[in-house]
Amino acid sequence: MEINRYFVVKEKIMSIAEIRLQLHQVIDTVDDGEKLEAIYTLLKNSNSPYKSMSLDEYVGAIDEARQEIKGGNYMSMDELEKEAENW
Q1: What average pLDDT is seen over the chain?
Q2: I need a labelling partner for 28 at 20 to 30 A (CA). Which of 6, 17, 68, 78 fits?
């Protein structure tokens, strides 16, 4: 099963927004300071390959991607699937 930007819970696929909401709800019920500190440390120090973007950076990235596509710099789904077989 491929999971990309989604988390599977009991055969239900949750979006990032749904996971975020669930985390908020669970964290709001925690009364143990040590658990909250552990959660905070885990989330604060995560080595995510993604960085936050400003709206201007986001729009710029979209514009750049559109230019790449217009310039023919993209892969078809078939090409991508063939490349993925070699990973």
Answers
A1: 82
A2: 6
